[in-house]
Amino acid sequence: SQANHKSVNDSSNPEPLCINPAKEAALHALCQKTGYTIKQENGQRKYGGPPPHWNDAIPGKGCEVFVGKLPRDLYEDELVPVLERCGRIYELRLMMDFNGNNRGFAFVKYCACSEARAALKDLNNFEIRKGRLLGVCKSVDNCRLFVGGIPKTKQKDEILIEMKKVTEGVVNVIVYPSAADKQKNRGFAFVEYQDHHTAAMARRKLMHTRPQIWGHPIAVDWAEPEVEVDEDVMATVKILYVRNLMLNTTEEQLEAEFSALVPAGSIERVKKIRDYGFVHFNTRENAITCLKKLNGKLLDGSPMEVSLAKPVDRETYVSFKVVFLYAGGPIYYTTGVPYGAATIPTLTATPRFAMPSIRGGVTQVPGMVTQIGAAGVPLGIPGATTGISGGQGRGPVQPEKYDLLPDMVLTPTNPLSLKPSQLQKSPIQLLEEYCMKMSLGNPEYKLHSAEGQNGRQLFLYRVDIPGFSSQSVSAKPSSQFTPTKLCISLDVAKEIAASHVLENLSIADD
C-alpha cells in the first residue's frame, strides 16, 4: 500500500517507489544529484521538506503554488528541473494514486515568496511535454467550513459555543445578519479552524456523524476560499465595498454619507444592491479616507462594514477554481455557497470585483479567506462594480461543419472532460452511459428540497452510484454525490446533479 512509508536515499528501505525500472533509476539519480530525499506516505510523495542543510524556519504563506495538468506518468525526475528554474524548492508534494501514477497535480513550496511568484508567472502554460501545458496558480489553504441549517434566531456567541462542542480547533465563526432583519442570521455560518488539517478532520466528522444543533440537522462543506489578489493590484484600488446595509437605505443616502468626507466631485459612482453596495472614487486617497472614518458607522441603525473591493480578472479566477477543485474542496464550476446560500459573479467584464475579506480595514493583506461564501451576498449584477453593463449572453450554438484538413492532429478525447454544453446528449444520458460502461449500475436520484430566502421551494437531487459502494474501501470514491446548487425546476435540478457527478468523475478519470 502507498500508505506505507517509502523513501529514496534510505538504504534500510530498498522498496522501490516506481514500477518502471528506468523511472526508479532516474529518481535515484535525481536524489543523488540534489541531496534531497523522496518519501512516500498517505497517497503522496514528498521531495524535500526540508531540503538538505536547511536551518531556517519553514516557508510561510504565499510560498506554495499548485501545479496541475500533469501527465499521469510524469515523476519528480522531469518535474523538479522545471520547477527549479524559478527558485529553490523547499518541498514538492506529488499526489499519487493506487496504481503508482500521479493524480495529475502537485503542490510545490519554494524557499521564498518571490520564487513562488516567479513560478506563477513563468510556469503557467509551460509545455512540459509536447502538447502538455502545466497549469500553475496559488495554493489554497482553506481553514473554513460552511455550516447550513442553523436557526436564524441564534447569535454568533451561541453558534461558536455549539460548534466547539461538536468539533475541535474552532477559533471563530462568521455570521451574517439577514438582509431583512438584522436581529436574525441568514441560516448559515462559516466556522474557522486553527489550520487546514483541523478543518478537514472536522468536515469529515460532521459529514459522517450528521449531528444536530438545537435539534436542527446541519449541512457541512468547505467554505469557498476567496480569490487571492496581488498586493500591487490592491494598492491601486479606489472602489469601496460596503455591506450590512438596510434594505431601505438608498443610493442617495449612501452617497451623502461618503460625500460629506471628501471634496466635491470625488465620488464618481454609487451602486447599491440589496444590503450591500460599491462606491467609486476619483482617487485612492479619498477612498481610504472614507474607509477609515465610515467603517462601523451606523446608517439607518445598521453598522456599515467598509473595505476595499478586490478586482479579479477572469483568467486568475478560472485558474483559482482549478486549484480549489483539486485541493479537495467542493466542485463549484459556478461559484457559490453550498445549497444556494449565495449567487455568483458573472465574470463577463474585466476586471470584476469580488467580495473582500469580512474584516474591513486598509491594513489587511489579501489572503485565502472566504469569497462569495463568507460574504453571503450575490455579486452577479452586471455593472455593479465596473460600470460596464453585462452582455445579453450567447445565443444557442448553431450546428456547423468543418473540413478535416491534412495538418490537423486528431487527439483521443474523454467525453467526461467536456462541458455538457459541448455535447448533444444531456448530462443525465451521459452519466447513465458511463455507469453502464463501467458496470456501476444505474444512478439513483434522491430528491431533496429547501426553502429559499424568498420562501420559494428549491430542489436538489443527491445521486448514488451503486457500483462505487461495492468497491474496496481503500480505493473507492464516495458513492453519493451532492451538487452545490438548488433550483426551482425538478428537471433542471436533475441535470445539475448529473453534471456534478460527471465533473467529479472527470477528475478521477483522465
Give a structural overview.
With 510 residues, this protein is α+β, with helices and mostly antiparallel strands. The protein folds into 4 domains: 6-138, 2-Layer Sandwich (Alpha-Beta Plaits); 144-222, 2-Layer Sandwich (Alpha-Beta Plaits), CATH 3.30.70.330; 229-389, Alpha-Beta Plaits; 417-508, Double Stranded RNA Binding Domain (2-Layer Sandwich). Helices cover 26% and strands 24% of the residues. It contains 13 helices and 26 strands. The chain has helices spanning 21-34, 76-83, 113-122, 156-166, 196-209, 231-234, 251-259, 284-294, 314-326, 372-375, 427-437, 466-469, 490-508; strands spanning 6-8, 38-41, 44-48, 64-68, 89-96, 102-110, 127-129, 132-133, 135-138, 144-148, 170-177, 185-193, 212-213, 216-217, 219-222, 239-243, 267-273, 276-281, 298-299, 302-303, 305-308, 310-312, 352-354, 444-451, 457-464, 480-481. The strands form 8 sheets. It has a 7-stranded antiparallel beta sheet, with helices on both faces. β19 and β20 (302-303) form a beta hairpin. α11 (427-437) packs across α13. The longest helix has 19 residues, at 490-508. The chain is globular, with a radius of gyration of 25 Å. The two termini are 22 Å apart.
Can you tell me the CATH class of the largest domain?
Alpha Beta
Secondary-structure content class? alpha+beta
What is the average of the pLDDT values? Answer: 75
- Molecular shape: globular
- Which fold name fills CATH's third level, the topology of the largest domain? Alpha-Beta Plaits
What portion of residues belong to β-strands?
Answer: 15-25%
Organism: Ciona savignyi
Subcellular location: Cytoplasm
Domain DRBM: 426-507
Main location: cytoplasm
